[in-house]
Amino acid sequence: MCQSDATGPDSQHLTLNIRTANGKCLPRVAGTVGAIVTCPLEVVKTRQQSSNSGFHHLPQIAQEPPGGSQTTCRTVYPAQRRYVTSSSNTLSIVQCLKHIIKYEGPMALFKGLGPNLVGVAPSRAVYFATYSQTKLFWNGLLPPDSPMVHVCSASCAGFVASTLTNPIWFVKTRLQLDLNKNSNMTAFECVRRIYSRSGILGFYKGITASYMGISETIVHFVIYEAIKAELVNHHTKYSMEKGTRDFFEFMMAGAVSKTVASCIAYPHEVARTRLREEGNRYTSFWQTLTLVFKEEGVRGVYRGLTTQLVRQIPNTAIMMATYEAVVYVLTTRLGTDFYDKEAN
Fold first, then answer.
1. Does pTM top 0.85 for this prediction?
2. 266-290: pLDDT as tens digits
3. How far is CA 194 from the centre of its chain?
4. What domains, with CATH codes, occur in the chain?
5. Virtual CA dihedral for 234, 240, 246, 252, nearest 10 degrees?
6. How distant is the alpha carbon of residue 78 from its chain centre?
7. CA angle 307, 47, 213 (to 5 degrees)
8. Across residues 20-40, what is the average pLDDT?
9. Which PROSITE patterns match (predicted)?
10. Whole-number Å distance between alpha carbons of 157 and 131
11. Taking residues 162-179, what's their average pLDDT?
12. CA–CA dist 19, 182 (Å, integer)
């Protein structure tokens, strides 16, 4: 370690505790605020990704089939399905927002917010804490701070976070896909309904798509760590002073890395949403992607990407910059230098 004056066990233990505390507390605050602010865009994105991606206001006969059975996307007639899933008829972000407000009311923009708030804090906390701890582990086995260390750490963190929180996101998606204006289904009612029909395993439908999404976190953190390392080298070489510009640069690094990662790995999001829909049309990850590509083309597997970028990139950039800022403040107070490479 480059901090030659911090070699004692107490100092190392204190530094580890700080990193762990940052990994748990900071993501909870940043993630919760971001979830509330971006919830309407989250609902729009989920609707765009679904098999009823146009979610046009369908004729009454299609909404209420004979016998009074509950309406799902399966009750849409074939001609209507081809219309609402046509790429040319996918609504824009603004059109989606207006459509939801018109036919479901303003509060519909916050469907699934409850599970989102419940899940975002533990998800982010588990992810960052796991990433931080596994990074220490892999640094002991592989060349310290090498790209492979970041890949392995991000993979472990993504796997653990996805496995533990998938039931929460499953319920959130089901609530967001509810197009019924008169529906007052709560998260608890949704949980009971899923459990009564599919049991515990029902909450893990689409988990394979979530695991495939680990590739996004890998690309994200590999690029972010690479940019961060270059910024650290630049400031070490040309300037010893660190100010607000450093945090702005880290914010931009987070935005750039997230943009690239989202574009590369986005199809798994569409597959995951389709798998979480009611019905048996989509059964597995690859079957879902194949079917979507066959019926809707390349644009079908990238539905909602624009909304995803608009929603996620600013949120991620702010979160990453805040993370770096708080770590910097806390570590400098203890006489350490956060910006120095750990492996020096």
1. no
2. 999 999 999 999 888 899 999 999 9
3. 22
4. 29-62+71-333 (1.50.40.10)
5. 0
6. 32
7. 65
8. 66
9. SOLCAR
10. 5
11. 93
12. 47
